[in-house]
Write a structure and sequence with these properties.
about 325 residues; mainly alpha; 14 helices; disordered C terminus
Length: about 325
């Protein structure tokens, strides 16, 4: 039986913007904790598993206390499973980028999601893409080249692959999220992503798990809490405002990642990041404004989830479209 769309809700743009800004703060904090955890010896498979698994009791407890457990009901289990498969891969890329690269660089690479979404729209969905968006894609990848400094002291290849891989995957997840949002509650999207993501990542745990002390467990709890809250805020923001309105707020993640890089690692972005980041941001804004101008009902080139985003979880962006 085909699921029927939920009734439209009145738009509340200021609330949507506030939710998105808060989501970027939480997402940036999560990736800061991920980086600290990696330096403390927590492996990537463990981080992916506990990021997902710790969401489940938080969500269930909150819903039980409010008498809203029924919000998790769904007739689209296979769609959630497919989204979780893609999203978990994106979360792995985002966590890998956060651990291998300076946070501002990893965050900036997450902003390539709209660029890849345009490519998917044109090459996979066979939709017409005009000169404005093609120009923005070219501009954005020039910004990537500036940041990676080919021929100079380049960004680590594995970290670059993880960051750009996250951009691709979050773009794919964005399509899935927007489709699920037609019929599913935001909390249901977050819960089933965490449920299936935990199952998938659990298969690697026997090969990587090791004992941890109180400090490492505290970090993992922080990753789970901030990641879960960020996912919910990202999804909720899209319920109260248009994508073109809220997606601009994703760029505030760069402020947070730069602050954390300076405050914790005493590291400020290099001159190439300062030069390349505005170029990539400008490209994303061109795509977003063009989508808004064309009045597309669903804007796959800018719809970030961030778990998506995170997977998102964008390194902040995001990820959406990863946890």
């Amino acid at each position: 039986m085909k699921a029927s769309p939920k009734p439209e809700r009145a738009e509340r743009p200021m609330l949507a913007i506030a939710l998105r800004v808060a989501a970027m703060a939480m997402l940036s904090t999560m990736f800061m904790l991920v980086k600290v955890s990696g330096e403390a010896g927590v492996s990537l498979p463990e981080l992916v598993f506990w990021r997902q698994a710790m969401s489940l009791p938080i969500i269930v407890t909150a819903l039980l206390l409010t008498g809203k457990l029924g919000l998790l009901a769904t007739r689209r289990m296979s769609s959630h499973a497919k989204r979780a498969t893609t999203g978990t891969a994106g979360l792995c890329c985002n966590i890998g980028a956060a651990t291998l690269l300076p946070l501002p660089v990893a965050t900036t690479l997450g902003f390539t999601t709209p660029l890849f979404a345009v490519l998917i729209t044109a090459l996979v969905l066979r939709e017409t893409v005009g000169k404005w968006r093609w120009t923005a894609v070219l501009l954005g990848f020039i910004g990537v080249l500036v940041i990676t400094r080919p021929g100079d002291v380049p960004v680590p290849a594995l970290g670059l692959a993880a960051g750009l891989g996250a951009g691709v995957i979050v773009a794919i997840v964005s399509f899935q999220i927007r489709d699920l949002a037609r019929t599913e509650e935001p909390i249901a999207c977050v819960f089933w992503f965490a449920f299936y993501g935990s199952l998938f990542s659990a298969f690697l745990l026997p090969f990587y798990v090791r004992p941890h002390g109180a400090y490492e467990w505290l970090l993992l709890v922080g990753v789970g809490l901030t990641g879960t809250l960020a996912q919910f805020l990202i999804t909720a923001a899209l319920r109260f405002g248009q994508v073109a309105t809220v997606v601009v707020m994703d760029y505030t993640a760069l402020i947070w990642s730069t602050f954390y890089g300076w405050a914790i690692w005493d590291h400020l972005p290099s001159y190439t990041t300062w030069l390349g980041a505005p170029v990539i941001v400008a490209a994303g804004l061109i795509i977003t404004s063009r989508e808004h101008f064309l009045s597309r009902r669903i804007s796959p080139t800018s719809a970030l989830d961030e778990s998506a985003t995170e997977e998102a979880e964008p390194v902040p962006s995001a990820q959406s479209k990863g946890t």
